[in-house]
Write a structure and sequence with these properties.
Order of helices and strands: H
Helix content: over 70%
Structural class: mainly alpha
Number of helices: 1
Distance between the termini: 89 Å
Radius of gyration: 26 Å
Number of strands: 0
């Protein structure tokens, strides 16, 4: 009976390790995707400001 408990703990530990590995991988890939989206959006915003910088209205 004691050996059965040890085997159960080992199996649960392996399953938990695999699941946590997938969760960590998903979180890191989501953070990387958000970073690249923010980088592209920021670059687009800077480009828009540089191109549209000559068309400012003067305040009278």
């Amino acid at each position: 009976m004691n050996l059965l408990k040890v085997a159960g703990v080992v199996i649960v530990g392996i399953i938990l390790f695999i699941v946590l590995g997938h969760v960590v991988s998903f979180v890191l890939s989501a953070i990387t995707a958000i970073f690249f989206i923010a980088l592209v959006a920021g670059g687009g915003y800077v480009a828009y400001k540089l191109v549209g910088g000559g068309r400012r209205r003067q305040i009278r």
